[in-house]
């Protein structure tokens, strides 16, 4: 199974697209994630993500991500949390390193996928 992050943006208007993906794909929704990190300026910022089961055909598991553009006390976080809770789930909060620590975004994404697999939030590599 291929698991990949699909970045929607930094969560300004993209949060509403992510909410729409969650509500229109309710049967495929698995987990909602809130990743907390500290940017190089010392501010805590949030990334939000939603993992979906693979489509009926294919072996691709998407994890949609709004990366590091959401302040901790933002109304946008409430929009995401409400979308996830409307499906009977609770967003999973995790502290992670900021993406600026990594030389490339793909290393950051691979690190997050490893953390999610280790915690059994997404299936292991097959």
From TrEMBL:
Originating species: Planococcus donghaensis MPA1U2
Name of the protein: DUF7147 domain-containing protein
Source superkingdom: Bacteria
Domain DUF7147: 1-122
